[in-house]
Amino acid sequence: MQKTFYHLSHIDLDGYSCQLVMAQTAHLMYSYNANYGAEVMDRLEEIIETIKKNKQEATILISDLNLYPEEAKWLNTEVNRLNDSGWKLTITLLDHHGSGKDTAAQYPWYYLDTERCATKIVYDYACEHYGLNGAGWLEAFVHVVNAVDLWHQDEEDDFEYGKVCMRLISDAKELSRVMFGDEDRAYKLAMLEQAAHMRNLPNANIVLDETLHKMKKDFFKEDIDNTLDNLSTKHIVALLGTKRSTMTIYYKGWRGFLSYGLGNTSIIGNGFLTEYPDFDFIVDVGTRGTMSLRGHDKVDVAQMAGEWVGGGGHPNAAGGRIQGFKEQFRYDKVKRQMEDMLANKEAMPGKLPHKIEE
Fold first, then answer.
1. E strand or H helix at 329, and its extent?
2. Residue 312: enclosing H or E segment and its boundaries?
3. Distance between the two ends of the chain, CA-based, in angstroms?
4. 8-state DSSP, 42
5. How many whole angstroms from its chain centre is CA 197?
6. Second-level CATH architecture of 4-220
7. pLDDT tens-digit profile of 167-183?
8. Which of 12, 133, 306, 330 is the most exposed place for a label (fewest CB within 10 A)?
9. Which CATH number fits domain 237-346: 3.30.559, 3.90.1150, 3.10.310, 2.60.40?
10. What is the pTM for the complete model shown?
C-alpha cells in the first residue's frame, strides 16, 4: 500500500542522498531541505501547514538533521494536536549526529545511530519497513556516502568517489534553493543518480570529476548546445516565467518581478525582461538584504532604488541594501517583507513618477 511522506533532509551529500534513497520506493514524497538553524523550524512549520491542507494519513520523515529539544517538542505537540482532531500522522527521525542524543532519549520516534551515516540508516530502514529492494547500484552508492560522510579514508575507492560527489552537491548552485526548492532538489538528485550509476567504472572518481561539467550542461540543454551559463540562464528564465503570478510586485503602478537569492541579475534579469516585456523591472534580494534591480528602458531603477533604500546606479541597473532585513528561508515571507516596505515607501514623496497606463 502506498504511503505518503513529508521528507525533510539536510542540504549536503548525505542529506540529499537520503532523499535519493526514498525516491526509489513506491511511496508518495513531498520533499523539503534545510540547513541547521532557523531554517529547520521554517520547514517544519511549512510541512505542518501543507499537511493541514491535505488532511491525509502520512509520515513526517526527518533525516540527517538532529532536532533540538524545543524543535522536537513543537513538532510532537503539533502532530498530537492534529491526531486528536482526526488526522493520522506519525513521525520518524533517522539521524546519526551525536548532538541529538538528549532529544532522542525523549521521543520514541527519534532513531539515533552514530555508527552509520544518515543515508545508510535510511537505506536500511527503507529496506526493512518501506518495501525498498536493496542491492545493485543504490547499495553501492550508499557505501560511497557512508565512507565519505564518516571520513573512512581506509575505504579508499568509496572515499575518493564520495569526495567528488560532495563537490557535485556543493557546486550545484545554478538554481536558487529558496525560489526553486523542488526544481533545485530534482536537479541535484538527477546528478546524484547519474553519479551513482557510474560508481563501478574504472577510475570512477576521475571519470566523474571530468564529467561533472557535461552532466550539468546535459541537464539544462534542451536542443542547441551552448555554454553552461547560457543554458542555465535560459532554464532559469523559463522557471521564472512559470512563477509570474506569485512573484509579481508593484510600485507606483510599475510592474516588477521579485526574486530572492537568484544572483547573476545582469544576465538573468535582462533575459527575463526581454522574454517577458510586460514587466517593467526585476529586483533580486540577497539573503543579507542587498538589492539588485534591472530595468529595460521603461522605468529608472536608479530612482527606484533611491526611494526604496537610498541606493542608486544607472537607469537600467541599480542596487542598494535594505536596512534591518531579516534573512528568510521561505519566499512567501520575503515577499511579505518587501511588500510592507514598498507600501510604506509609496506613501512618501519621491521623484519617481507613477506609471501612466496606456
1. none
2. strand 312-314
3. 57
4. H
5. 24
6. Alpha-Beta Complex (3.90)
7. 999 999 999 898 899 99
8. 133
9. 3.10.310
10. 0.91
